[in-house]
Description:
This is YugN-like family protein. By secondary structure, the chain is α+β, with helices and mostly antiparallel strands. It has helices at residues 15-24, 97-107; strands at residues 12-14, 28-29, 37-46, 49-63, 68-73, 77-82, 86-88.
Amino acid sequence: MKFEGTGIEEVSADLNKLDFIMESEGFVRADQWDYERVTYDRKYSMVEGTFYLRISGYATEGDVGAKKAHIQLLTPLLGKHYYPHGVEYGEGEEFPKSLIQSSKKNLHS
Length: 109
């Protein structure tokens, strides 16, 4: 599920500042071997399953691995985790209303 029109996709920021802000909002930057992209996840464990609010971005300049980069964020996604396959974001996924409301609130804070 995409959260269009949040304004997050218009945000461009220094990686270190972005890491600090995202961590303070409950997001964790995924450890990955990528010098051009970042992924921030906020995990929701519910009776209905495990879900992730994900905000990805890419380096417009610099190197993510060296922690010296300027990042352009992309449209936030909400996905459901399926073991062992991973996270699915498809339009056919069902998301609890409380999760959607909580995700929207977190994106607008």
